Amino acid sequence: MKKCLMLDVDGVLVHPQNSRSWADDMKQDLGIDPDRLTAEFFNVHWREVILGRKKLESALQACLPGLSATVTAKDFMAYWFERDSAVDAAVLDDLCCLKNRGLSIYLATNQEHQRACYLMDAMGLAAHVDGIVYSAALGVKKPSDDFFAHAETKTGFSANEIVFVDDSKANIDAAFARGWTAFHWTGEERLIDLIV
Hints:
Elements: E1 4-7, E2 14-15, H1 26-30, H2 34-50, H3 56-67, H4 73-83, E3 86-87, H5 89-100, E4 104-109, H6 113-122, E5 131-134, H7 135-138, H8 145-155, E6 162-166, H9 169-178, E7 181-184, H10 191-195
Parallel strand pairs: 1-4, 1-6, 4-5, 6-7
Antiparallel strand pairs: 2-3
């Protein structure tokens, strides 16, 4: 019997507020061109940020002055996090049911430190799960086998005790290769129907 559910966050439990990308209205709202943001922030800094080698706020401070004369790193993070924070109520309900049945629940996600804290604290996900395993804290990201190995060590569950749900096929394949039971999330099924 499985003892632990590891659940991806973005695309499974959490979605953008208006069902479009959080960045779709950025030019209108903040005056920041999303293509320039990709070129000057995500392409340059994101890998180091998501692996915990560089702080998000520092990376944003390095590139935002060239993108906007008025938007601070804190302003930008608040905008981003708030717009990328709609919780799927059906998935959350299923998590609560599974937890009540004795399954340990962990979020297993590629996140940097500040959004991981935002997910757990500001969004209140800490009240519904036993913990979060995330890339910046581990120094590796999915689909690296090291991510899954570290997740086992951090939670104390072995591969054969874990069931994993993610919307990325590459992550599912990596978890399966590690020996985890893994399901590719499409949003067309109920979480509880996959697990039980």
